[in-house]
Design goal:
The protein has three domains: 50 residues; 298 residues, Rossmann fold (3-Layer(aba) Sandwich), CATH 3.40.50; 117 residues, no CATH class. It is built from 17 helices and 16 strands. β9 and β10 form a beta hairpin. By secondary structure, it is an alpha/beta fold.
């Protein structure tokens, strides 16, 4: 091709190139417009979503309202954890701050994202997670809605990410609805009162205030009977499916990354053979990963945990929770898993309130187990009134003498067993003691310690026995008067005689 021909072609090439450039510019501008429109649409979608919330779980809001970077220990899991771990008990044992970030039938995958949510405002040194939702029995409560309940405790991107933890057999529309309330409850606009903007804004706002229960759910003892927990030996070897090991590994990895001590547990409940086989497989897998775990089923007898007395077939009651929490507290303290605890005035007020509430759970009139009472009372705010008629028949031994002294009673119940003794103690401080009966005023009440009874404003507190201990809160809103008769050994040597017992300690 000659130079003249080349010059004749160039204008055509340049025109074609210019045309392509214009086309690409148009596509780019169009793409930018679509991206901007998409971002605007996403923003509107995300912004409107909170206004369509219905019966939302506000536990996450109240957790985020807690003073930041104060919580030392986090407990995760289903209702098995919510009923078994009491931060008020844990505080009484250790002085450390803890919180139960649980939810009903909490899917194991969602526990991972809930820990991510925790780490936005807190940096616990220890995480305890219950493995119940990996066991066959949990399938009876594994409705799709349990994912939504857990996800509703999350915020921002964490909630969106948590959708990937929902099993593939859940349809995409349901997943989308769990992520965005606007999609699930889009027809909610029909019930909105647009004449009251404040009310609409309030529905979209986070719940104010903190959860004074700290995530713990209490349950009163109902069947006062010692029933040994049936524990099954594994019979069938089970292999954990990948859909479960992936979340176990993610939890392990996240805790390692954040320098968190991770403890897997199975709180006491009535297992069956299938659960026993699966639980053995879980412990085997955790052994292969070098992870720590506590099997409370295997340790129930040693810890003195009994079905009925300490919990029903699934959940711990307030007495069972004390056993579980105390054991976890001992493990965490002995292994030094909390090293950065810092006192916080606002948090301390919450935990002192939780400790006061815990005293009522453990020391109220339903509890007549004198051993549990005298072991727990020194840890909780309470008033103790005491009278004993000296008697050589007393069965008080070295252990009982030490336990009574730990209550604040300044008397030698072994070497001075023939002496009468009367005393009043408040929050571990001895108010008054004497070898003779006396009266005193407490919180506007006239307390009379007589030879045969302890009276409140002239009224008897009940059967006195040869020895009597009264446990009550400092405001006298609840009173537990426990009589003890040495001649029969009533309550003292056989602590379940006050109940219908199927087992005697």
């Amino acid at each position: 091709m000659s130079h003249s021909e080349e010059r004749e072609v160039r204008p055509e090439v340049n025109a074609r190139t210019e045309h392509h450039s214009i086309q690409w510019a148009g596509i780019l501008v169009g793409g930018i417009k679509l991206a901007v429109l998409g971002a605007i649409a996403a923003g509107i979608w995300w912004g409107l979503t909170p206004y369509f919330r219905v019966d939302r779980n506000t536990d996450g809001d109240q957790f985020r309202a807690f003073p930041q970077n104060t919580i030392d220990v986090i407990a995760l899991g289903s209702s098995h954890m919510q009923y078994a771990f009491n931060p008020g008990y844990f505080y009484a044992e250790t002085g450390y701050y803890s919180y139960v970030f649980g939810s009903v039938c909490q899917p194991f995958s969602e526990s991972f994202y809930l820990l991510e949510e925790v780490l936005k405002t807190q940096h616990p040194e220890t995480v305890v997670i219950d493995v119940f939702t990996l066991l066959p029995q949990s399938q009876v409560c594994y409705a799709e809605g349990t994912y939504y309940i857990a996800m509703d405790m999350m915020s921002g991107k964490t909630r969106i990410d948590a959708a990937e933890g929902i099993p593939d057999d859940v349809d995409p529309e349901t997943k989308l609805g769990y992520t965005y309330d606007l999609y699930m409850n889009h027809s909610n606009w029909k019930t909105m009162d647009f004449s009251d903007p404040k009310k609409i804004r309030a529905a979209a706002s986070e719940e104010q205030g903190i959860a004074w229960g700290l995530g713990y759910v209490d349950q009163d003892p109902e069947v006062l009977q010692f029933t040994p927990l049936e524990v099954f030996e594994p019979q069938k070897e089970v292999t954990l499916p990948e859909r479960e090991t992936i979340w176990i590994d993610k939890l392990i990895g996240l805790c390692e990354e954040q320098n968190i001590h991770l403890i897997f547990v199975k709180t006491p409940y009535q297992e069956d053979q299938a659960d026993a086989d699966k639980l053995a497989a879980i412990w085997k897998y955790l052994d292969s990963k070098g992870c720590e775990y506590i099997d409370f089923l295997a340790e129930a007898e040693e810890l003195g945990w009994f079905l009925d007395m300490d919990g029903d077939t699934w959940h711990n009651n307030t007495w069972g929770a004390e056993i579980v929490t105390r054991h976890l507290a001992n493990v965490i303290q002995e292994k030094g898993y909390v090293t950065r605890h810092t006192e916080n005035a606002d948090a301390k007020q919450v935990y002192e309130t939780a400790r006061t509430r815990a005293a009522k759970y453990l020391l109220n009139k339903q509890n007549v187990n004198i051993y549990r009472l005298i072991e727990d009372a020194p840890k909780y705010p309470c008033t103790i009134l005491f009278r004993i008629k000296g008697d050589t028949r007393t069965s008080i031994g070295t252990y009982e003498n030490k336990a009574l002294n730990a209550l604040g009673l300044n008397h030698d119940f072994i070497n001075a067993k023939e002496e009468d003794y009367y005393a009043a103690v408040k929050d571990g401080v001895l108010l008054q003691e004497s070898s003779e009966p006396f009266e005193l005023e407490l919180d506007g009440n006239r307390i009379s310690l007589t030879e045969d009874d302890i009276l409140f404003n002239g009224a008897s507190t009940g059967l006195s026995g040869e020895m009597q201990i009264i446990f009550c809160d400092d405001a006298f809103e609840w009173i537990n008067a426990v009589p003890i008769d040495y001649a029969s050994g009533y309550f003292w040597k056989k602590s379940c005689d006050g109940w219908t017992c199927s087992w005697n300690p």
